[in-house]
Every structure is written in structure tokens, then in C-alpha cells.
Amino acid sequence: MNKVKFAAVALAAAMALTSATAMADRDAGDAEKGKKVFNKCKACHDIRAGKKKIGPSMFGIAGRPAGTVEGFRYSEAMKSSGVTWNDDNLDKYLEKPIKFVPKTKMSFPGLNKKNDRADVIAYLKTLK
Ligand code: HEC
What's the CA gap between 92 and 97, in Å, rounded? Predict the structure, then answer.
């Protein structure tokens, strides 16, 4: 292999490696940034246990089955969704609530940016 070609291959490999690392970081989400994204949710969701607003408290939401916060009147759709709030399901719901749980009464259009969703999910996980 000539020198120029080798340099190009090495550079491409290095770039692939850094972008893979960067992506892994983004997938994990940043709870600090997620706290700011959560400003969009605050009107309807409290983070303290047992405090409901228009929506149920987000305390301990990660890992919990959907529609199970005591004392909150969910839609039938949410109660019977059979969903558990793992990262993947939270991501899908927050991207477009009415698509993932048709007839949900959460009137929020969704978060378009994957990074915003990953960040807010990281933040939700700290609420426990
Ligand atoms: C306009 C008010 C409103 C906004 C804004 C809103 N939500 Fe909701 N959310 C609701 C309501 C109402 C429900 C209950 C839905 C149902 O019963 O179908 C809900 C349900 C949820 C659930 C499922 C709760 C459970 O116990 O199963 C999650 C998770 C959730 N919201 C997260 C969010 C996040 C994160 C944001 C911000 C990105 C957000 N919501 C923005 C009103 C809202």
C-alpha cells in the first residue's frame, strides 16, 4: 500500500471510530440537557411522587407499566396499552404519542429530535 492510500484508510478508520463513540454517547442521553427538554412537559407533569397535574407524576416512570400511577384517571387506551416504559417505548411514545398509543389523552405533538428524546429519557430515569 502506498503512503497516501494508507493515510486515507487510517483516517477513515479513525473517523468511523470517533463517530461510533459519539453516537454511543448520544444514545445514552444527557440528563442535564433532558431537564431543560422537560420544560416542555412541566405544564402537565410534576416530578414529585403523587402530584398530578393534567398528566400523571413522572416520579419513578422509568421501568413502570403504563397507566399505573395511583389516583390518576388515564385514557382507556393508556390503561390497556400493555406497554412498559423502557427506553425504547418511551422513545417511541415521546416521538409521536398518538401514533404509539392511539387515543392517548396526552395532547402533546411529540419531540422530533432523537437527541431531545434520549436526553429527556435520561432525565426521567433520575426521578426515583
Ligand atoms: C398538554 C399536557 C401534556 C404535556 C405537555 C405532556 N404530557 Fe405526558 N401525559 C399527559 C397526559 C394527560 C397523560 C395521560 C395519557 C393517557 O391517559 O392516555 C400523559 C402521559 C404520559 C406518560 C405515560 C404515563 C404513565 O403513567 O403511563 C409519559 C411517560 C409522559 N406523559 C411523558 C411526557 C413527557 C416526557 C413530556 C414532555 C416531552 C410530556 N409527557 C408532555 C399530558 C401531557
Answer: 8
Q: How far is the CA of 48 from the centre of ligand 1 (A)?
A: 14
Q: What is the pLDDT of residues 12-33, one digit of tens each?
A: 666 555 555 555 545 689 999 9
Cα of 84 from ligand 1 centre, angstroms: 14
How far is CA 48 from each of CA 3, 78, 81, rounded to the nearest angstrom?
A: 61, 21, 24
Nearest to 116 by CA among 42, 29, 22, 20: 29
Task: With CA atoms as reference, report the closest residue to 118 among 3, 60, 33.
Answer: 33
Query: What's the CA gap between 36 and 46, in Å, rounded?
Result: 14
Nearest atom in ligand 1 to the alpha carbon of residue 90 is 29
Q: pLDDT per residue over 73-99, tens digit each?
A: 999 999 999 999 999 999 999 999 999
